[in-house]
Design brief:
Elements (H helix, E strand, L loop, with lengths): L2 E2 L18 H11 L8 E2 L6 H4 L5 H9 L4 H7 L5 H24 L1 E4 L20 H11 L6 E5 L6 H7 L5 E8 L12 E5 L5 H19 L4 E4 L17 H17 L4 E4 L8 H26 L2
Helix pairs in contact: 1-10, 5-6, 8-9, 9-10
């Protein structure tokens, strides 16, 4: 199972910035410590070039991001100060999801240890998201002719508004977002399937809603690839989440997505998406469990087929 990581994922930020940037390096270290992955399983992704980014973003927006010509209010909406390092991070994170999709099509499952930047729209960034890696990757796979149908399953606690807006009206891409009804973004977009959850939703109600969402998604989209945004922020200890999932509940969520993909023989590319736990160690542990469980599920399935 190929895992895509680059040191450029860790963007230097001003002291006191609320984004937990260290989680990416910590996740790589935690995965290595499991003994499940070798150093050779971690691959450095290529940076997405301008032409590729323009599969989901306007040429003007890409140019202004790259050249540092965003207005002050646009930078505030993103939430990161502009720098060449920010541009490179955003390119690499998008490139990592593209690479994970290609690897998933070849091997069954792969993961970007960052990504899930689902608040980026075609012509503006938002909520710590500059370029929309899932939308770019979906369009890239479609453009390359690898497939004709892709589904994006977004289980971050915040709606994938940018993904929904970019891919609206594209019958080849199905967007499913399950998120907190009263959480950011406060102006929601319309996905192909939205499931909105009340504050305080716990494991049992979450899993019942997810079962319905997965059944609907696979029946309506018949995907040849799933891109899964495995946000850690529905966790009960997340400072931005407002839901109440336990770590066991999040593991069950991941298992349900993996089993649905395996049951339908659909390859899976994973992106980490959000996670803002009061203890960054909880966020890292949740992401680590997602990737480890994916490896266990897909490796066991592959091993069984070869017996």
């Amino acid at each position: 199972m190929k895992l895509y990581y680059a040191d450029e994922f860790v963007l230097p930020l001003p002291e006191g910035h609320r984004f937990p940037m260290a989680k990416y390096r910590m996740l790589r270290e935690a995965l290595l410590a499991t003994g499940r992955f070798a150093a050779s399983d971690f691959c450095i992704p290529d940076a997405a070039d301008d032409e590729t980014l323009q599969l989901a973003h306007t040429a003007d927006y890409v140019r202004r991001v790259v050249c540092g010509e965003l207005a002050a209010d646009e930078i505030r909406r993103i939430g990161f100060p502009w720098s060449p390092e920010m541009v490179e991070r955003s390119r690499r994170s998008t490139g990592a999801t593209i690479a994970a999709c290609r690897s998933a099509l070849a091997d069954g499952c792969s993961a970007n240890l960052a990504g899930g930047t689902h608040h980026a729209h075609a012509d503006f960034g938002s909520g710590f998201c500059v370029f929309n890696d899932a939308a770019v990757a979906a369009r890239c796979m479609l453009a390359e002719g690898h497939l004709s149908r892709v589904a994006i399953i977004d289980c971050d606690v915040h709606q994938g508004d940018g993904t929904a807006a970019i891919l609206a009206g594209d019958p080849r891409a199905f967007t499913f977002s399950m998120h907190g009804a009263k959480n950011f973004p406060f102006r929601k977009q319309t996905s192909d399937l939205d499931i909105e959850l009340p504050d305080g939703t716990g494991d049992a109600d979450y899993m019942a809603a997810l079962a319905h969402g997965l059944e609907t998604t696979f029946a309506r989209s018949r995907p040849q690839l799933v891109i899964y945004l495995a946000g850690a922020d529905p966790f009960e200890g997340d400072r931005l989440g407002r839901l109440a999932l336990s770590r066991d509940g999040l593991a069950a969520r991941d298992q349900a997505v993996f089993e649905a993909c395996l049951a339908h023989h659909v390859p899976l590319a994973i992106a980490m998406a959000g996670g803002y736990a009061n203890d960054i160690g909880d966020t890292v542990a949740i992401h680590c469990e997602t990737v480890s469980r994916a490896h266990q599920c897909f490796f066991a399935a592959a091993d069984a087929r070869h017996r």
